[in-house]
Specification:
This protein is mostly helical. The protein is built from eleven helices and two strands. It has a two-stranded antiparallel ribbon with strand order 1-2. 30% of the residues are buried.
C-alpha cells in the first residue's frame, strides 16, 4: 500500500502538468528544446516554401516565392541574429549562461509564430501581404480583415513573448523585474538586428 501511495505522489497532478505545459520552454530539457526547435524551424521553412510565404521578420511573413534552400537560410538567419543580441544581454545578468541552452530554448519558444502563416494560407494572400507590410493601409482597405488578423497576431505575439521570457529566465537562472526589463530590451534589439540582416539577403545571390 505504501509503495502505491509513493507511486501516486510521484505522478504530476493535472495542475502541475498544465503549469509545465504553459511554461514549456523552461521545463523542457536543453537537448529536447534544441531538437524540437530545429524540427519546427525546418517544418516552418517547408510550409513557407510550399505556400509561398516568405518571412520578413521574427513575427511577419509576406506572399512571394523563394527556393526552399533560401527559406532555410532565412530561418537560420532570424534565429541566429536574434539570439546573438539576446545572448549578449543575457551575459550581463549571468556570465555563465550556456549559449546552447539559450539558443535552443529561444528557438523552441519561437515555433508558435508559425501559426501566423495560417491566415496567409487560408485567406486572401494580397490582403494578408498588405497587412503584414503596412497595417495602416490594410485597415483603410479591409478594416474587418485587418481587425481579425490583428487579434490573431496579438495572441501569437503575446504567446511568443511569454514563452521567450520562460526560455530567457531559465537560461539566466533569474526571474525578477530587472530580468523582465532586460528581456524586453534584448527582444527589441534582436528583432531589429534580425530584421535588418534579413532585409539585406537576396535569393539572387548577393547580400
Amino acid at each position: 500500500m505504501s509503495e502505491e501511495i509513493r507511486v501516486r505522489r510521484s505522478r504530476p497532478t493535472m495542475s502541475e502538468y498544465l503549469r509545465s505545459l504553459v511554461r514549456r520552454p523552461a521545463t523542457i530539457t536543453t537537448n529536447n528544446a534544441l531538437l524540437w526547435g530545429l524540427a519546427w524551424l525546418i517544418a516552418g521553412a517547408i510550409i513557407g516554401w510550399h505556400f509561398s510565404l516568405v518571412p520578413t521578420s521574427l513575427i511577419s511573413y509576406t506572399w512571394g516565392y523563394i527556393p526552399l534552400l533560401w527559406h532555410l537560410i532565412y530561418a537560420l538567419v532570424l534565429w541566429i541574429t536574434s539570439c546573438v543580441a539576446i545572448y549578449a544581454i543575457a551575459l550581463t545578468i549571468n556570465r555563465r549562461v550556456a549559449i546552447t541552452e539559450l539558443f535552443g530554448r529561444m528557438l523552441f519558444a519561437h515555433w508558435p509564430v508559425v501559426v501566423l502563416m495560417v491566415p496567409g494560407i487560408v485567406t486572401d494572400r494580397v490582403a494578408y501581404s498588405t497587412y503584414m507590410s503596412n497595417v495602416a493601409v490594410s485597415f483603410s482597405q479591409e478594416p474587418l480583415y485587418a481587425t481579425l488578423l490583428s487579434v490573431v497576431v496579438a495572441v501569437v505575439v503575446a504567446w511568443y513573448i511569454f514563452w521567450g521570457y520562460c526560455a530567457f529566465s531559465r537560461s539566466v537562472q533569474r526571474s525578477d523585474a530587472t530580468t523582465r526589463i532586460l528581456y524586453i530590451v534584448a527582444l527589441v534589439v534582436g528583432f531589429v538586428l534580425s530584421t535588418v540582416t534579413l532585409s539585406q539577403l537576396s535569393p539572387g545571390g548577393g547580400v
